[in-house]
Amino acid sequence: MNKKLYFYFCLCLFVCSTVLLSFGSGKVSETSANSAAASFAISGANIWDGTGQAAIRDGVIIINDGRIQAVGPRASVQIPKGATVISGEGKTLIPGLINAHGHVGMTRGLKAGPENYSEENILAHLRQYARYGVTTVLSLGSDFELIFKLRGPAGAQETPRATVFTAGRGFTGKAGYPVVLPGNAGVQREVDSVEEIRIQVEELTRQKVDMVKIWVDDHWGHYKKIRPELYRAIISEAHKRGLRVMAHLFYLEDAKSLVAAGLDGMAHSVRDQEIDDALIRSLKEKKTFAVPTLVREESTFIYAQPPAFLDDPFFGRWIAPEIVSQLKDPAYGARVKADPDFSKFPGQLKMGQKNLKKLWDAGIPVVFGSDSGPPARFQGFFEHRELELMVEAGLTPAQALQTATSNAATALHISGNFGTLTKGKRADMILLDADPLADIRNTRKINKVWIGGREVN
């Protein structure tokens, strides 16, 4: 074979092998996904930027290399030559939603457990969040070492998915709630002494967790609750090492004790009774934020009869049909109703809503979270339902959305990159076909989602 023919033969082999390797690795679609991070503009949309300001009518936003270069009214923003222009006419652009209380990796179908915790499952859940416009999530207390490999935004060669932050493994008392519940064995850190706590917090410090989580609950007296001296020690040890702490709580008196000890964030609403002025004063003094997780309360009773959303295309589009069938099975509803505390659950939701409105009106920082991720708490869909329940509680649509954008970013100390559609921030955005400020259910009318300037498929 002469040199010229040999050259073309080698070139052909190289091209063919490259194509085959691309198909074999599943990376072909990544090329188009990555190219979306180049310069583009959305023109003509109403832009609600998450800062609390009024929406920009007939706005333009410029994205370059995954970040916002400019945003403003059409008349004041020049679109660069060569930029791809996407029409936003008749649409509304909002920041991606930030969930400050979610869980990833533990659930497959309607069952949870450490055996499900894998890179594949974590990524599947983060992509599920992304499809629904939940572009960032704090996974709060049920994560193992594997999460630290995936923490943060998707890599350049990954399919776009939600950015994930983590609290690693959270704390409870020895044989306490919720480690005794199905699927939780070995998940939470069970502690019974201050010395154990020092060792465990030191490990969390090494892992550089984004938050520390404590469960302080006995589920209406059915299970053991972590002792106050232990949760105080956790908060103290975490603060010594520069870590912040959120707590699952239920009772007003526990909330008061935790906040007095320096708790940084309430991971749920108080649900046993109406909050009082003493707690509000303490929250203000300690600068503690509050995450309502109303949809978590709804999930405790909503499946007693098949809820209407099981037939909602926005729900069913990304949920396996066999899961829907299980939830519609009368036997599933019967198990829900058989809970000895079933009659209390609707009241817990109403009390949580009442306390949310009271906290908001008092000026306490309210931060969006859903507690989605455990069985039958569906990642992505539940965040949109949480927004509805917040509006039902008395917040305006703009206020509810603010909790899920700038408020959440501020509380999680990530506002330098996330939470608003302002110059320099990551381009995490949702383009909606209708205005959510007019009707919060319009957050479901998703046209496109971008994470770091890359379009989610």
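Above is the first protein from milestone M3; the second protein from the same milestone is given next.
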Amino acid sequence: MRRGQIITIDILTAFAVFILIADASILLWEYELTKAGDSQNRNIMEEVARAASNQLMTPGEPSDWQLTDINSSSLHSFGLTSSSNVIEWSKIQRIGQLNGNQGNYTVVKSALGLNSWEVWFGVLYENGTMIQSFGSQPPTGSSAVSIDRKAMLNSSPVTVRLEVWR
């Protein structure tokens, strides 16, 4: 061979290495973008769940919503308490009556500010026994955010658990 000539095998090898590096870089870039998007969605879901959980720990608007018919014009915000972290028993009983009706579910979701999210919440005794719940729990394998809040119900400590997902 004379000096300055390029062998075809060398060019093909260099091109194959270049393509492999470019493919690996693109795959890594797409993976990182997906991971960043998932992290951002998770952060948004956590913020939405925190806001809805805070809303549950208020009396709601009107504060005597449990005594009226539930619809989008009568229920402005949804809450379970009568005072700070004290759950009102009549509101817990009313949740049981509202559960299972898709129209009620939509109105309560809207009053919690969760129009584009799915929601489940329940009130549990400290030993885990369910007192009352609303909605259906998230499907297995779904990415859900769960927030527990401590409160009192009839002088007993309880946990208010809220789960949000899409």
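Note on the second protein: DSSP finds three helices and eight strands in the chain.
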